[in-house]
Amino acid sequence: MLHEYKTIENSVENILLKEKGSKFIGFAFPVNNENELKNALEKIRSEHPKATHHCYAFRMGINGENYRANDDGEPSGSAGLPIYNQLLANEITNVLVISVRYYGGTKLGVSGLVKAYKESAKITLEEANIIIKELEAEIEIQFNFNQQNLIFTLLSKFDAKVLNFDADENCILTASLKTAHKENISDKLSEMQYISFKFKD
Hints:
Elements: E1 4-8, E2 12-19, E3 22-30, H1 34-47, E4 53-60, E5 66-70, H2 80-89, E6 95-102, H3 109-126, E7 130-134, E8 136-144, H4 148-157, E9 161-166, E10 170-178, H5 182-190, E11 196-200
Antiparallel strand pairs: 1-7, 2-3, 3-6, 4-5, 4-6, 8-10, 8-11, 9-10
Helix pairs in contact: 2-3
């Protein structure tokens, strides 16, 4: 099972490419869900309302299983796909790349467009810092108040981050940890008494 993936550290904006009078402006954003994706697209559309096209492609999910390539009115396959192929070439996921085009009066033809959008995505991603991220899982643990030390010791052993802790007679704690540790921590918790736990999807 995969426990890590490659993505970009921060967003990259306004990478300019000129081709026969047309301007292509490249953007790349790290995105983790549909919401972040929508916000990034809306941001660029509002910053460039007069652009001729806002073409983009994204990949999300550990294996890039959630993806889309959008030509936004350019000839089919001439914009979104060349951008998407750059995401594949860099083996990155959870990334959105947008190429905003201002038409300059000279038609580029399909092969010219493919080349320009590919180049725009390529130089934009060259500016990005590609990092390896480890997948994380959230766990919820319920235990008795007098078992806190035990639980906290165990969590720190697995480098888990406590996200939420309700200290009561019956404590409920939520923590995130690397998915690589899921099995080991499950084994340890299963051996303890008066403790219940579940992983959140």
